[in-house]
């Protein structure tokens, strides 16, 4: 409703004019407009809130995207490292396989060598048993030989003559105590020497032909009387008797002495004796004679 003054011609207010308008529709529209404005304001605020949330979500997505990109780069790096490690493992596997094959080959060779060693061990054990048997026999024969040597030494000592035993090489094998007493040489000095090279007071060179005759088997016995000088410088006539004994009696009995030759090389000079001759010579010397 509107109130307006009513004025006359002279400009004085003569009354009031009341204007009544129907504003129901206007009020409704105004209320609707107010509600719409409120709804718009609420929607704007919601949109602003949504925009802020979307901006925050966008920032989070960007952060997540950066993290994913960084993680992807790390995964690529890790993949490359794993690929490199895989290649190294393949190479190592090939090397290990090659080493395994070499070890198998070595194992087979060692097994073969072990079998050969076992065979050799069995052969050596068998040889050792044979050697022990031979050693026992040798020990037994050595004891027997010691007994024979003792018996022979007793005989040669009690016989009262200087006795020499000479082998096929004309080396002295036995030099008894009477020979030491007569000529002054000990058994250690005489044994192993060529008999014709001995430095004693007897002209042994004059016995060369007789000695070779007995050794060659031309005769079984030779006897010679020579002028001699004993170890005290006394001259006397010496009867030398040479007797042969069986072939092979001294061969191999002492291989080291048979094969060594005389100490002064005289053995090669007169050692060539027929294999059909005597095994050696027993030379006996005594004072006296015609």
Task: Give a written overview of the molecule.
- The chain is of the alpha+beta class.
- The protein has a domain at 160-287: Beta-Lactamase (2-Layer Sandwich).
- Helices cover 57% and strands 18% of the residues.
- The strands form two sheets. A five-stranded antiparallel sheet has the order 4-3-7-6-5.
- β5 and β6 form a beta hairpin.
- The longest helix has 135 residues, at 24-158.
- Mean pLDDT is 84; it is low at 251-275.
CATH superfamily of the domain at 160-287: PAS domain
Percent helix: 55-70%
Strand numbers in spatial order across the main sheet: 4-3-7-6-5
For the termini, the CA-CA separation is 207 Å
Identify low-pLDDT runs: 251-275
Would you give the CATH topology of the domain at 160-287?
Beta-Lactamase
Radius of gyration over C-alpha positions, nearest whole angstrom:
70 Å
Main beta-sheet strand count, sense and barrel state: 5 strands, antiparallel
- Average pLDDT score: 84
Instruction: Supply the CATH class of the domain at 160-287.
Output: Alpha Beta
- How many beta-strand runs? 7
The count of helical stretches stands at: 6
The general outline is: rod-shaped
Which class do the helix and strand fractions yield? alpha+beta
| Element-level helix/strand string | EEHEEHHHEEHHE
Architecture of the domain at 160-287, according to CATH? 2-Layer Sandwich
Roughly what fraction of the amino acids lie in strands? 15-25%
